[in-house]
Design goal:
GO terms for molecular function: GTP binding; GTPase activity. Keywords: GTP-binding, Nucleotide-binding. This protein has six helices and six strands. It is 35% helix and 25% strand. Helix 5 links the parallel strand 5 and strand 6. Strands 2-3-1-4-5-6 form a six-stranded mixed beta sheet, sandwiched between helices. It binds guanosine-5'-diphosphate and magnesium ion.
């Protein structure tokens, strides 16, 4: 009854420093990792139960500084779904998202690749904070789900992955 019949790869993308590693760790281990090695790509496995089905996940935490676009393209080609992350406290990281979406769509030659937009560090409130409305607006323009999350406060982390996995399963015809 613990058989894994579905395995999906989720790729974390977004600018350096937005919290891809911290959110990944919060999801996998349930704690906030203050300082994570910024330069390595890592892969993690986890089994999650979604709507009564055990789903095997491989999470690829990219470092975002791939020297060769060929390496980045490889991630974009292989992923079953993508967590598109910006930091609510870093406007350039938000403005970078449309370019990421374009890259994914180009590599996949499809505009139906499962993605979720995640605005991390919702616990911060600087003057030029990206508002929840701005996040929602961007997500709506790509017709993808949106969550404001905090790796630090463990807010909405599970929810954002689960919504992505559901999209992947629909796309794969599993549900
Ligand atoms: P990555 O380069 O996208 O993997 O970013 P990291 O996970 O290494 O995080 C970059 C920095 O942001 C680290 O100092 C983290 O402690 C911090 N950070 C990550 N998530 C949060 C969060 O939800 N809230 C706050 N306040 N800081 C965070
Ligand atoms: Mg990282």
């Amino acid at each position: 009854e613990d058989d894994i019949t579905e395995i999906y790869q989720v790729v974390m993308v977004g600018e350096c420093g937005v919290g891809k590693s911290a959110v990944t760790m919060q999801f996998l281990k349930g704690f906030f990792l203050e300082d994570y090695e910024p330069t390595v790509d890592d892969r993690y496995q986890k089994i999650v139960n979604i709507e009564g089905t055990n789903v095997g996940l491989e999470i690829v935490d990219t470092a975002g500084q791939e020297a060769y676009s060929a390496i980045r393209d490889k991630y974009l080609r292989e992923g079953d779904g993508f967590v598109l992350m910006y930091s609510v406290a870093d406007r350039p990281s938000y403005e970078k998202i449309p370019e990421l979406v374009k890259q994914i769509q180009k590599v996949r030659d499809s505009d139906r690749v499962p993605c979720v937009l995640v605005g991390n560090k919702s616990d911060l409130d600087p003057d030029d904070r990206i508002s929840e409305e701005e996040g929602q607006e961007l997500a709506s323009s790509f017709k993808i789900p949106f969550y404001e999350v905090s790796a630090k406060g463990a807010q909405n982390v599970q929810e954002s992955y689960i919504s992505l996995i559901k999209l992947i399963r629909v796309q794969a015809g599993s549900i």
